[in-house]
Amino acid sequence: MGVPEKLVVIGGGHAGVEAAAAAAKMGVPVILVTQQLESIGQMSCNPSIGGIAKGHLVHEIDMFGAIMPPAADETGIHFKVLNRSRGPAVRATRTQNDRSAYREAVRRRLEEIPGLSLYQGTARELVVQGGRIRAVRMVEGEMLACGAVVIAAGTFLDGKITIGENVFSAGRANEPPSLELAAQIRGMGFDVLRLKTGTPMRLHADSIDFSRFSPQPGDEPPIPFSILTRRRVRNRVVCHLGHTNPEVRRIILDNLERSPLYSGRIRGIGPRYCPSIEDKIVKFPQRDAHHIYLEPEGLNTREIYVNGLSSSLPVDVQRRILNAIPGLEKSVVMRPAYAIEYDAIQPTELTQSLESRKVAGLFFAGQVNGTSGYEEAAAQGLMAGINGAARILGGPEVILGRDQAYIGVMIDDIVRKGVDEPYRLFTSRAEYRLQLREDNAFERLGDLARSLGLMKPRLHGRMARRFGRLQAVLDEMRVNRIRYEGENHTLSQLLKRPGFSLREIEALWGGPLLRPLSLADASYIEAAIKYEGYIRIQREDAERLKRQSALEIPADFDYALVNGLSMEIRQKLERSRPATLGAALDIPGVTPAAVTAIRIYLVLMGKRKAAGRVR
Question: What is the pTM of this model?
Answer without folding.
Answer: 0.91
